[in-house]
TrEMBL record:
Protein name: ParB-like N-terminal domain-containing protein
Family matches, as NCBIfam families: parB_part
Signal peptide from the UniProt entry: none
The organism's taxonomic lineage, starting at the top: Bacteria, Bacillati, Saganbacteria
Keywords: Chromosome partition, DNA-binding
Biological-process GO terms, alphabetical: chromosome segregation
Domain of life: Bacteria
GO cellular component assignments: chromosome
Protein species of origin: candidate division WOR-1 bacterium RIFOXYC12_FULL_54_18
UniProt xrefs under SMART domains: ParB
GO molecular function: DNA binding
Span of domain ParB-like N-terminal: 33-122
Protein family (similarity comment): Belongs to the ParB family.
Length: 289
């Protein structure tokens, strides 16, 4: 932190009030002022990049009817009001065509500006996972915070913060797909379990093409892992099982695999059509065909 104030040391999970220092930069006890909407410049640290157009239009319609009920937060920068929090309200107000917008003006530090913008979006609970991950990464890179520091700030577990930052390692097409909500966090976690970019891209394309839900994606991934693991087990298979495999193969007239030991294991029987499955079942159940 750039200062030692108690307000800055409190966690983001406690709300915006925990980060807003007491006292306005303006004298005379004036806290909320109406500012020219064109004199408000964007927050360069805004973690959110995607805004739902329909929801913005709904908010703009509300502002036309009721005005801006909750002020935005700004700080003074080179004679302009730099936005700290309230991006949606500002955008909707511009869409509504109003000339001035109420603002609370405070002397925020760069760190506070990023933290408050991040917590505002986190408290809405609809921040895009990519924007959230990038926000955490900026807290780490710009202010030297550890994942543990960030987790305390945002009121989330360290593993959640780590997983969000891990999203940044995904290939660019997948990150854009996640940002556009073509896939979701559950899909991304599944993709992160794969050990190469090529595999991640292949599965992602399959997810999008087949419109997979998260469970379907997990099943496909588990199948890939199982095949890889199976190949390793088959290579080092217990030789005591060879005679059993031979007997089952001859008896069932199909490919049979046995994993484990003579005391405990698993049998895998291949079939290649519904008719073939019925044939195998007849043999197992002792029925004549």
């Amino acid at each position: 932190m750039t200062t030692g104030s108690n307000a800055q040391k409190r966690g983001l999970g406690k709300g915006l009030g925990a980060l807003i220092p007491q006292g306005s930069v303006f004298m005379g006890g004036r806290t909320v002022i109406n500012v020219d909407i064109n004199s408000v410049i964007p927050n360069p640290r805004q973690p959110r990049t995607n805004f739902n157009k329909e929801m913005l239009q709904d908010l703009a319609d509300s502002i036309k009817a009721q005005g801006v009920i909750e002020p935005i937060l700004t700080r003074m920068r080179n004679g302009k009001y730099e936005l700290v929090a309230g991006e949606r309200r500002l955008r909707a107000a511009k869409m509504a065509g109003i000339a001035a917008i109420p603002s609370i003006v405070k002397d925020f530090t760069d760190e506070q500006s990023l933290e408050i913008a991040l917590i505002e979006n986190l408290q809405r609970e609809d921040l895009n996972p990519m924007d959230e991950g990038e926000g955490y990464a900026r807290l780490a890179s710009e202010f030297g915070m550890t994942q543990e520091d960030i987790s305390k700030k945002v009121g989330k577990s360290r593993s959640t913060v780590a997983n969000m930052i891990r999203l940044l390692s995904l290939p660019k097409p997948i990150k854009e797909s996640l940002r556009e909500r073509e896939i979701f966090m559950g899909h991304a976690r599944t993709l992160l379990s794969l050990d190469s970019e090529a595999k991640q891209l292949d599965l992602w394309k399959q997810m999008v093409r087949q419109k997979m839900n998260v469970r379907d994606a997990e099943v496909v991934t588990q199948s890939k892992h199982r095949k890889k693991s199976t190949a390793k087990r088959a290579f080092s298979q217990n030789t005591e099982l060879n005679s059993i495999i031979e007997k089952l193969t001859n008896r069932l007239a199909t490919k049979v695999k046995v994993y484990g030991t003579p005391e405990r294991g698993r049998i895998e029987i291949d079939y290649f059509s519904r008719e073939d499955l019925e044939r195998v079942l007849d043999i197992i159940e002792g029925r004549k065909r």
